[in-house]
């Protein structure tokens, strides 16, 4: 067993961290205020190979392992978790197209998606179904020319902003096996968007409903096989959960780093905050918790890379543990900044707001516990 990152892994982390520090962190607050991320950022990330981190090299991707990819998200989140998480969603979609798309679809969609000339969004959730995603109602009807989609997707990150949407819709009977996945490019007739959602965090990335009104797409836009869409959507989620956990980890680490500096500067009762042993112990607790979270996340990623039979359970456990630890640490950092932690200028309150949603999406942390408990009970027999 080897816990040390390889030289290549260190280089990947450093590359992402340096890019984030130079090209994302200085603008993160402005992008949050504007509610959008400039389109010009994405091709820069694409040029680093971050548009298809675990897309196969034979398809033009970077062919990295899941573990390597978590290093990228951890490092970028130190600059802005909202930007990093958006990149994770794009990568999840690109991987779905690589893994399940036809050769024709891969050739048509991937080159621009991997260079991030185009960005992709993932459309599973609906107004009436979130955790119970297999209950989705958006219909896909096959016609002579292709498919027509009708329905509404809710909470779509990049809705009205992205160039194409990977959409799970019902082409058959009730239940998961009646669901297929489709690619819907922006501009298709019958595709429209709801208003911009006003959110607690992740404010830099636009979230909107994505609406389909008899939206016509060609037959070639069916992703993979009919009736397999739910399986494809779930296949993307194990890795997505690791990425989101990595985003919590990186941002919480950035909050801890900032807190360490702040406590050396801020004076109270004639000494700097870092002289109070009660506060030193809180720093130690945060360090212990983040290190435990980091090891747990890497182990889950390692299992996913090896196709371990318990990988899904470990991804779920890591997602719940790391996102909750990240939020707890970020909140403690805010407290240690006193009133200044509550002010936007110090950057901590944004981290607290951005990380909160990581306990809700890519499967809520209750659903993560459901996955873990179900498997424990099954194993007990
Ligand atoms: C900012 C943001 C961005 C998002 N981006 C996307 C996106 O890009 N694409 C996309 O498809 N979706 C996206 N989502 C949707 C997200 O995945 C869902 O919100 C999430 O899956 C939860 O679904 P829900 O909101 O319908 O909550 P519900 O499913 O209604 O759950 C409500 C509560 O009940 C709990 N609960 C539900 N069922 C059970 C159960 N069986 N046992 C125990 N507890 C249960 C939940 O954990 C939760 O606490 C996004 C959401 C947000 C907030």
UniProtKB/TrEMBL annotation:
**InterPro entries in alphabetical order:** Acyl-CoA_DH_CS (IPR006089), Acyl-CoA_Oxase/DH_mid-dom (IPR006091), Acyl-CoA_Oxase/DH_mid-dom_sf (IPR046373), AcylCo_DH-like_C (IPR036250), AcylCo_DH/oxidase_C (IPR009075), AcylCoA_DH/ox_N (IPR013786), AcylCoA_DH/ox_N_sf (IPR037069), AcylCoA_DH/oxidase_NM_dom_sf (IPR009100)
Q: Which domain of life is it from?
A: Bacteria
Names of the cofactor(s): FAD
Keywords from UniProt, A to Z, are: FAD, Flavoprotein, Oxidoreductase
Q: Does the keyword Transmembrane helix apply?
A: no
Please tell me whether the keyword NADP is annotated for this protein: no
Q: Which family does it belong to?
A: Belongs to the acyl-CoA dehydrogenase family.
Q: What is this protein called?
A: Acyl-CoA dehydrogenase family protein
């Amino acid at each position: 067993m080897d816990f040390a990152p390889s030289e290549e892994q260190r280089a990947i982390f450093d590359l992402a961290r340096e890019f984030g520090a130079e090209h994302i962190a200085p603008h993160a607050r402005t992008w949050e205020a504007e509610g959008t991320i400039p389109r010009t950022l994405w091709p820069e990330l694409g040029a680093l190979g971050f548009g298809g981190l675990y897309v196969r090299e034979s398809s033009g991707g970077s062919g990295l392992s899941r573990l390597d990819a978590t290093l990228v998200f951890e490092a970028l989140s130190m600059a802005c978790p909202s930007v990093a998480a958006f990149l994770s969603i794009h990568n999840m979609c690109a991987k779905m197209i690589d893994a399940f798309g036809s050769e024709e679809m891969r050739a048509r969609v991937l080159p621009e998606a991997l260079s991030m000339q185009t960005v992709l969004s993932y459309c599973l959730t609906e107004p009436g179904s979130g955790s119970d995603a297999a209950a989705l109602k958006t219909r896909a009807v096959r016609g002579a020319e292709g498919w027509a989609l009708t329905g509404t997707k809710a909470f779509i990150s990049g809705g009205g902003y992205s160039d194409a949407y990977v959409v799970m819709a019902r082409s058959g009977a009730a239940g998961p096996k009646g669901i297929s996945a489709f690619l819907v490019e922006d501009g298709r007739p019958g595709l429209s968007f709801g208003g911009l959602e006003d959110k607690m965090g992740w404010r830099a990335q636009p979230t909107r409903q994505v609406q389909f009104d008899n939206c016509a797409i060609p037959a070639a836009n069916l992703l993979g096989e009919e009736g397999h869409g739910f399986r494809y959507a779930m296949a993307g989620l194990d890795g997505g959960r690791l990425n989101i956990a990595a985003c919590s980890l990186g941002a919480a680490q950035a909050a801890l780093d900032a807190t360490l500096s702040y406590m050396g500067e801020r004076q109270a009762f004639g000494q700097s905050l870092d002289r109070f042993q009660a506060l030193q112990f809180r720093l130690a607790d945060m360090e212990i918790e983040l290190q435990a979270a980091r090891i747990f996340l890497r182990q889950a990623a390692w299992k996913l890379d090896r196709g371990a039979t318990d990988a899904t359970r470990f991804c779920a456990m890591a997602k719940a543990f790391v996102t909750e630890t990240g939020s707890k640490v970020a909140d403690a950092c805010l407290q240690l900044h006193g009133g200044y932690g509550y002010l936007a200028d110090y950057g901590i309150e944004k981290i607290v707001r951005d990380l909160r949603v990581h306990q809700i999406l890519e499967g809520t942390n209750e659903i993560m516990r459901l996955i873990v408990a179900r498997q424990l009970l099954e194993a007990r027999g």
